[in-house]
Hints:
The protein is an alpha/beta fold. The chain is about 30% helix and about 25% strand. It has nine helices and eleven strands.
Amino acid sequence: MLSGRIYKLLAGTYYVDTAEGGIAAKAKGSFRSDGIEPRVGDSVVLQEERGSYRICEVMPRRNQLIRPPVANIDIMVIVLAVRKPEPDLLLAEKLIFSARQNGIAPIAVINKSELDEEAAQRLRAQFEQPDIRCITVSCREGRGMPQLKSMLTGYTSCFAGQSAVGKSSIASYFLPELRLQTGGLSRKTDRGRHTTRCCELFRFAPDSYIADTPGFSLFEDEIIDPAVFVSSFDPGYAAYASECRFRGCSHTSEPDCGVKAAVESGKLSKERYERYCKLYNQIKINWRNRYD
């Protein structure tokens, strides 16, 4: 028996980092009927069978994400570009919420700051919160990258965000010998091209991994209790929720809302509040239709 951690899944083969090095293995046949699906990041036990290895046990997970499909993540690095492509801020909010729900620390990385320093700082200001660390970087020029590396050392981090925002370029800064494939924007659509073909963990320092994951611009809609979303979207809202007239206020359509008053007075970001309302309405519809 060998124990290790899955660091890559490709074409049905799992690659496991063990004390004896990297080992290719298949999942035990009974996993499918038992509803068990090993993921990159899982701690597993291997059993040798006639010269090949099978994953015979998957250890309990601290957390797991649907997209990117990784487990046991400490930090979610949410990469946004100042432009090219234009930042999908609603996607970033969904990722931050997903990270919080899964016990993962979110870090917002504003990349391509060389294109517009002032815009980068404005974007950073929208996301800075007590539980969200933010950093402005220029991967092309190397600015801010040593600080980002220090923030990720000692943890397993997942890179997430739109295509072409620089996730693979940032990963290549940590691991230049890998020369991870990077891509640009389609000239016709100005949308990112998918460049990463599999989810994989890379070790860049002792006990330090990064996951270079397929870029995406969509996010699967989960069924979430609206009350959970209200209480979890922004911890800063709690300070003003006590001033709401109604208990259980959603901070959207109710009168005498403390959160709305804080937004109107400039104490809370108007841009983030508008995204909050969009997400709340979407989540409320999904919740109502959850049995359809």
